Amino acid sequence: MDVFLSPQAWLVAFGIFTARLVNIAIDTLRFMFTLRGKSAVSWVLGFVESVIFVLVIGSVLTNLENPLNIIGYSAGFATGNVIGMAIEKRLAIGYTHFSIISPNHSTEIADILRLEGYGVTEIPARGRESNFMLVDCHVRRKQADEVESHVLKVDPNAFITTEDVTPRRSGIWRL
Q1: Are the C-beta atoms of 169 and 119 separated by less than 8 Å?
Q2: What span, in angstroms and rounded, lies between the C-alpha atoms of 26 and 80?
Q3: Using an 8 Å Cβ cutoff, are 134 and 123 in contact?
Q4: How would you classify the pairing of strands 95-101 and 131-140?
Q5: CATH number, domain 95-165, options 1.10.10.10, 3.30.70.120, 3.40.50.700, 2.30.39.10
Q6: Are 158 and 152 in contact (CB under 8 A)?
Q7: What local confidence, expressed as pLDDT, does residue 3 receive?
Q8: What is the pLDDT of residue 55?
Q9: Arithmetic mean of pLDDT, 119-127
Protein backbone atom coordinates (compact mmCIF):
# COMPACT_ATOMS: atom_id res chain seq x y z
CA MET A 1 0.00 0.00 0.00
CA ASP A 2 2.95 2.33 0.61
CA VAL A 3 3.81 1.95 -3.08
CA PHE A 4 0.69 3.97 -3.96
CA LEU A 5 1.80 6.85 -1.78
CA SER A 6 5.29 7.12 -3.24
CA PRO A 7 6.08 10.18 -5.34
CA GLN A 8 7.29 7.93 -8.15
CA ALA A 9 3.91 6.11 -8.35
CA TRP A 10 2.07 9.44 -8.53
CA LEU A 11 4.50 10.80 -11.11
CA VAL A 12 4.09 7.75 -13.36
CA ALA A 13 0.29 7.97 -13.04
CA PHE A 14 0.39 11.67 -13.89
CA GLY A 15 2.57 10.93 -16.92
CA ILE A 16 0.07 8.32 -18.07
CA PHE A 17 -2.78 10.79 -17.52
CA THR A 18 -0.98 13.50 -19.53
CA ALA A 19 0.00 11.19 -22.38
CA ARG A 20 -3.52 9.76 -22.61
CA LEU A 21 -5.04 13.26 -22.56
CA VAL A 22 -2.81 14.28 -25.48
CA ASN A 23 -3.54 10.97 -27.25
CA ILE A 24 -7.32 11.42 -27.10
CA ALA A 25 -7.19 15.14 -27.94
CA ILE A 26 -5.20 14.22 -31.06
CA ASP A 27 -7.71 11.44 -31.81
CA THR A 28 -10.60 13.92 -31.68
CA LEU A 29 -8.79 16.33 -34.02
CA ARG A 30 -7.78 13.50 -36.38
CA PHE A 31 -11.41 12.42 -36.63
CA MET A 32 -12.53 15.98 -37.44
CA PHE A 33 -9.82 16.39 -40.09
CA THR A 34 -10.78 13.02 -41.57
CA LEU A 35 -14.43 14.08 -41.86
CA ARG A 36 -13.32 17.24 -43.66
CA GLY A 37 -11.16 15.34 -46.15
CA LYS A 38 -7.77 16.52 -44.86
CA SER A 39 -5.94 13.24 -45.46
CA ALA A 40 -2.34 14.42 -44.94
CA VAL A 41 -3.10 16.01 -41.57
CA SER A 42 -5.18 12.97 -40.58
CA TRP A 43 -2.29 10.64 -41.44
CA VAL A 44 0.23 12.59 -39.33
CA LEU A 45 -2.14 12.85 -36.38
CA GLY A 46 -3.01 9.15 -36.67
CA PHE A 47 0.66 8.19 -36.64
CA VAL A 48 1.43 10.30 -33.56
CA GLU A 49 -1.74 9.08 -31.84
CA SER A 50 -0.77 5.43 -32.42
CA VAL A 51 2.74 5.88 -31.05
CA ILE A 52 1.44 7.56 -27.90
CA PHE A 53 -1.24 4.89 -27.45
CA VAL A 54 1.24 1.99 -27.70
CA LEU A 55 3.59 3.62 -25.19
CA VAL A 56 0.82 4.48 -22.73
CA ILE A 57 -1.00 1.15 -22.84
CA GLY A 58 2.35 -0.59 -22.41
CA SER A 59 3.03 1.44 -19.26
CA VAL A 60 -0.36 0.59 -17.80
CA LEU A 61 -0.30 -3.12 -18.65
CA THR A 62 3.21 -3.67 -17.26
CA ASN A 63 2.22 -2.23 -13.92
CA LEU A 64 -1.38 -3.28 -13.24
CA GLU A 65 -0.76 -3.59 -9.49
CA ASN A 66 -0.76 0.22 -9.26
CA PRO A 67 -4.40 1.39 -9.52
CA LEU A 68 -3.17 4.97 -9.92
CA ASN A 69 -2.03 4.07 -13.43
CA ILE A 70 -5.50 2.81 -14.35
CA ILE A 71 -7.08 5.92 -12.84
CA GLY A 72 -4.60 8.14 -14.70
CA TYR A 73 -5.32 6.31 -17.96
CA SER A 74 -9.10 6.61 -17.54
CA ALA A 75 -9.01 10.23 -16.39
CA GLY A 76 -6.70 11.11 -19.30
CA PHE A 77 -9.13 9.52 -21.74
CA ALA A 78 -12.13 11.43 -20.36
CA THR A 79 -10.27 14.75 -20.11
CA GLY A 80 -8.74 14.29 -23.57
CA ASN A 81 -12.22 14.10 -25.08
CA VAL A 82 -13.19 17.43 -23.54
CA ILE A 83 -9.89 19.12 -24.45
CA GLY A 84 -10.04 17.76 -28.02
CA MET A 85 -13.58 19.11 -28.44
CA ALA A 86 -12.52 22.52 -27.12
CA ILE A 87 -9.54 22.66 -29.50
CA GLU A 88 -11.67 21.60 -32.46
CA LYS A 89 -14.30 24.21 -31.64
CA ARG A 90 -11.63 26.88 -31.40
CA LEU A 91 -10.08 25.87 -34.73
CA ALA A 92 -13.58 25.86 -36.30
CA ILE A 93 -12.41 24.14 -39.46
CA GLY A 94 -14.98 23.78 -42.21
CA TYR A 95 -18.23 25.37 -43.25
CA THR A 96 -21.71 25.83 -41.80
CA HIS A 97 -25.03 26.06 -43.60
CA PHE A 98 -27.63 28.32 -41.99
CA SER A 99 -31.37 27.99 -42.60
CA ILE A 100 -33.09 31.01 -41.09
CA ILE A 101 -36.84 31.43 -40.73
CA SER A 102 -38.15 34.84 -39.77
CA PRO A 103 -41.72 35.31 -41.03
CA ASN A 104 -41.64 39.10 -40.67
CA HIS A 105 -37.95 40.03 -41.04
CA SER A 106 -36.37 37.66 -43.57
CA THR A 107 -35.61 40.39 -46.14
CA GLU A 108 -33.98 42.56 -43.46
CA ILE A 109 -31.87 39.62 -42.31
CA ALA A 110 -30.81 38.83 -45.87
CA ASP A 111 -29.93 42.48 -46.50
CA ILE A 112 -27.82 42.77 -43.32
CA LEU A 113 -25.94 39.58 -44.11
CA ARG A 114 -25.29 40.76 -47.67
CA LEU A 115 -24.02 44.12 -46.35
CA GLU A 116 -21.60 42.16 -44.17
CA GLY A 117 -20.32 40.34 -47.26
CA TYR A 118 -22.03 36.97 -46.87
CA GLY A 119 -23.60 35.10 -49.78
CA VAL A 120 -27.32 34.77 -49.11
CA THR A 121 -30.18 33.13 -50.97
CA GLU A 122 -33.83 33.88 -50.24
CA ILE A 123 -36.16 30.98 -50.96
CA PRO A 124 -39.95 31.32 -51.01
CA ALA A 125 -41.42 28.96 -48.41
CA ARG A 126 -44.80 28.13 -46.94
CA GLY A 127 -45.35 27.24 -43.30
CA ARG A 128 -48.44 26.02 -41.53
CA GLU A 129 -49.79 29.53 -41.04
CA SER A 130 -48.17 31.76 -43.66
CA ASN A 131 -45.81 32.24 -46.56
CA PHE A 132 -42.34 33.62 -45.89
CA MET A 133 -38.80 33.70 -47.26
CA LEU A 134 -36.32 31.13 -46.04
CA VAL A 135 -32.87 32.72 -45.73
CA ASP A 136 -30.12 30.34 -46.78
CA CYS A 137 -26.48 31.17 -46.03
CA HIS A 138 -23.21 29.20 -46.08
CA VAL A 139 -20.25 30.50 -44.07
CA ARG A 140 -16.95 29.38 -42.62
CA ARG A 141 -17.48 27.89 -39.16
CA LYS A 142 -15.35 30.65 -37.64
CA GLN A 143 -18.00 33.13 -38.79
CA ALA A 144 -21.04 31.24 -37.50
CA ASP A 145 -21.35 33.15 -34.21
CA GLU A 146 -21.12 36.47 -36.06
CA VAL A 147 -23.88 35.44 -38.51
CA GLU A 148 -26.12 34.29 -35.67
CA SER A 149 -25.53 37.59 -33.86
CA HIS A 150 -26.56 39.61 -36.96
CA VAL A 151 -29.73 37.53 -37.35
CA LEU A 152 -30.75 37.84 -33.70
CA LYS A 153 -30.22 41.62 -33.72
CA VAL A 154 -32.85 41.87 -36.45
CA ASP A 155 -35.20 39.19 -35.09
CA PRO A 156 -34.55 37.72 -31.63
CA ASN A 157 -37.28 35.14 -32.34
CA ALA A 158 -35.81 33.88 -35.63
CA PHE A 159 -35.73 30.11 -36.03
CA ILE A 160 -32.16 29.16 -36.92
CA THR A 161 -30.77 25.75 -37.82
CA THR A 162 -27.22 24.93 -38.83
CA GLU A 163 -25.39 21.95 -40.22
CA ASP A 164 -21.82 21.28 -41.25
CA VAL A 165 -21.35 21.17 -45.01
CA THR A 166 -18.60 20.28 -47.45
CA PRO A 167 -18.50 22.61 -50.45
CA ARG A 168 -18.12 20.89 -53.82
CA ARG A 169 -17.67 24.01 -55.94
CA SER A 170 -16.92 27.57 -55.01
CA GLY A 171 -19.49 30.30 -54.72
CA ILE A 172 -19.56 33.43 -52.60
CA TRP A 173 -17.46 32.88 -49.47
CA ARG A 174 -16.63 35.81 -47.26
CA LEU A 175 -12.91 35.82 -46.53
Answers
A1: no
A2: 8
A3: yes
A4: antiparallel
A5: 3.30.70.120
A6: yes
A7: 61
A8: 92
A9: 92
SS3 labels along 37-99: CCHHHHHHHHHHHHHHHHHHHHHHHCCCCCHHHHHHHHHHHHHHHHHHHHHHHHHCCCEEEEE
State the average pLDDT over residues 13-22: 94
Question: Residues 56, 16: contact at Cβ < 8 Å?
Answer: yes
Other CB atoms within 10 A of residue 70 CB: 14
Average the pLDDT over each of 80-94, 108-122, 151-165 and give the range with the smallest value. Answer: 80-94
With cut-offs at 50, 70 and 90, classify the pLDDT of residue 127.
confident
Lowest mean pLDDT among 66-70, 114-118, 143-147: 66-70
Cα–Cα distances (Å) from 87 to 23, 80, 150, in that order, read 13, 10, 25
DSSP state of 134: E
Task: Say what the pTM is.
Answer: 0.69
Return residue ranges of the chain for CATH 3.30.70.120. Answer: 95-165
pLDDT at 51: 95
